[in-house]
Amino acid sequence: MWPLWLLTSLLALSQALPFEQKGFWDFTLDDGLPMLNDEEASGTDTSGDPDMDSLTPSFSNMCPFGCHCHLRVVQCSDLDLVTVPKEISPDTTLLDLQNNGITELRRDDFKGMPHLYALVLVNNKISKIHEKAFSPLRKLQKLYISKNHLVEIPPNLPSSLVELRIHDNRIRKVPKGVFSGLRNMNCIEMGGNPLENSGFEPGAFDGLKLNYLRISEAKLTGIPKDLPETLNELHLDHNKIQAIELEDLLRYSKLYRLGLGHNQIRMIENGSLSFLPTLRELHLDNNKLSKVPAGLPDLKLLQVVYLHSNNITKVGVNDFCPMGFGVKRAYYNGISLFNNPVPYWEVQPATFRCVTDRLAIQFGNYKK
Hints:
Elements: H1 2-10, H2 38-42, E1 68-70, E2 73-75, E3 94-96, E4 104-105, E5 118-120, E6 128-129, E7 142-144, E8 163-165, E9 187-189, E10 212-214, E11 233-235, E12 243-244, E13 257-259, E14 267-268, E15 281-283, E16 304-306, E17 334-336, E18 361-362
Parallel strand pairs: 2-3, 3-5, 4-6, 5-7, 7-8, 8-9, 9-10, 10-11, 11-13, 12-14, 13-15, 15-16, 16-17, 17-18
Antiparallel strand pairs: 1-2
């Protein structure tokens, strides 16, 4: 029962609403869009799930005092620990140390754990990490170190790492080279840090082939430059972004989900969205837009548009759907326009001619 209980508890680790990861072992981060399998998502032959051989029962009697150990899972959460415990079995694949009082990761804390696949350190007080603390973890794919006191990205992360969740720390700078050698990295969640645009050094993301990046609840005033061109999902919600300029989205032709809700966006320059031919979902809710962004009818795969809680006063008959027939390949299954000062009785029915059905349109002035 312990592994099942543990995996269930880990579902709550990500606070990345409304883009919350649905499954602990699913690092494609998208249960609803089966367009990427594990190999395609990571860019390697590494599977998103641990080797099934590693889940066979462990016959070691080693288990730290107070912890629960079963099927190579060591669960030591909520024990008021101040250091990483000793006597952890060398065949451990998942180590859960969340909700403790650990302040430092020392050089030999993970020595003798060559098979560790996932390390959970969420909600501790970690402010210091030895530069060689992660050196023994040659098979580590998931590192959850959110809700700590870190002021920098941990150095010398394992080259095997696929997913890094480091949100809700005190990180202000992402230097060039900090992700060097992480060719398998698929997902980085670094929201909830006091990051400004100036905190990203040129080349900070060089070499990464990310599918998912979230830098929400930070202090960004614009879309950061030089993010990985491979991104399928980019989430920058809850920042201070004021405008989308023509060159801001030039690099991201592979995006299928873009989250820009809860910003201060007043203007989206004409032509900006044309660089996103594969976009399926666009979140622009809770901004200061006065009109529907130009270019939506040309996005042939776009299916969901969130525009609620803006300052939109008019919706034109061609704002969403292309003129003529057979141009847009995908029909909308969600358009939200509620909580805008739009006289909805003046909107022509033909405005939503490329929507699946009327229930897909959220109109009026109600609030959630």
